[in-house]
Amino acid sequence: MTDAALSPAPAPAPVKASPFHELEVLWVRHWTDSLFSFGIRRPEDFRFRSGEFVMIGLPDEDGGKPVLRAYSIASPNWAEELEFFSIKVADGPLTSRLQKIQAGDTVLMGKKPTGTLVLDALTGGERLFLIGTGTGLAPWLSVARDPETYSRFGHVYVIHTVRGVADLAYRDFFSREIHDDPLIGDEAKAQLTYYPTVTREEFETPSPLKKGRITDRIKSGDFFRDLGLPEGFDPARDRAMLCGSMAMIKEAGELLETFGLKEGSNAEPADYVLERAFVG
User: Fold this and answer.
1) What count of Cα atoms within 13 Å lies in the side-chain half-sphere of residue 29?
2) Residues linked to residue 133 through DSSP beta bridges, in sequence order
């Protein structure tokens, strides 16, 4: 018998764990030709803080590396399914395909949620302003359904700026449906104000909708007058979160700084936060 015959067979190479969950699409809702939402099955071991984002993608059609993009989770941290709010881009590497998904399809989701649009990154305050443009509304759908939000702040303002009235996805939800939420409905009815603005469409007045960019309405003071608030943000009582277009986030952040608010982070909580993963 030779030494070679006595040598043990080499151990099989360990199978590398996938960095993604492969999850079933539960439903899809198309709001407009450019906006849609979808829900996917939540893994039992997946935990996140309301307001965080995660990487979303689709299996590559040719077996190559999948294309992934960061998406804010539009569900609160207690939800049994995960909801996402997306734009449609005809030639987008991901959304050109993602917009065609249907219930029963498979979506890839990263295993590590992260982000700064979380309550942990803010110090205590009395009023919370959630300012978003377009699909930047997504994290507010999460934060506004978290019971901790209402225990930490006396009033919550959800501000959504879009181009046209049809782009105000979730308008009915924030205007009425959230009041029927079994967990935070009573708190939302008493403590939440929804403030939508439209930039490129005329509509009849008087109307609950407001015309113009949110930063312009803040500068003019119309924003505060509309809400019956003293003009200006007060660093002693006001906290804010920003999500959406790069232009809005930059301008709104500068505005908040002029009122004395300071940017915070997970490591150093302060007066306002923005999601840098979405701004370059």
Assistant:
1) 9
2) 161
**From the CA atom positions of the chain, what is the Rg in Å?**
22
Contact 167, 35 (CB under 8 A): yes
219 Cβ neighbours under 8 A, 6+ residues apart: 255
DSSP structure class, residue 270: B
The continuous run of DSSP H or E covering 23 comes out as: strand 20-30
Look-up of token digits 């302003």: 129
Q: Is 233 helix (H, G, I), strand (E, B) or coil?
A: coil
Residue 206: partners with Cβ closer than 8 Å, 6 or more residues away: none
Amino acid at 52: E
Q: How far apart are CA 145 and CA 268, in angstroms?
A: 24
Residue 14: pLDDT band by 50, 70, 90 thresholds?
A: low
What is the spatial order of strands in the sheet that 68-72 belongs to?
A: 68-72, 53-57, 106-110, 20-30, 35-41, 81-87
Angle CA(142)–CA(147)–CA(153) in degrees, nearest 5?
95
Residue 182 pLDDT exceeds 70: yes
Over residues 126-140, the mean pLDDT reads 97
**pLDDT tens, 83-99?**
999 999 989 899 999 99
**Helix, strand, or coil (residue 30):** strand
Q: Which pLDDT score is estimated for 1?
A: 47
Give how far Cα 271 sits from Cα of 239, 260, 266, Å. Answer: 5, 9, 12
Q: Provide the phi-psi class of 85: left if phi over 0, else alpha when psi is between -120 and 50, else beta.
A: beta
Q: pTM for the complete prediction?
A: 0.91
Tokens of 258: 């002029």
pLDDT tens-place string over residues 24-65? 999 999 999 999 999 999 999 999 999 999 999 998 877 778
Question: Is 130's pLDDT higher than 60?
Answer: yes
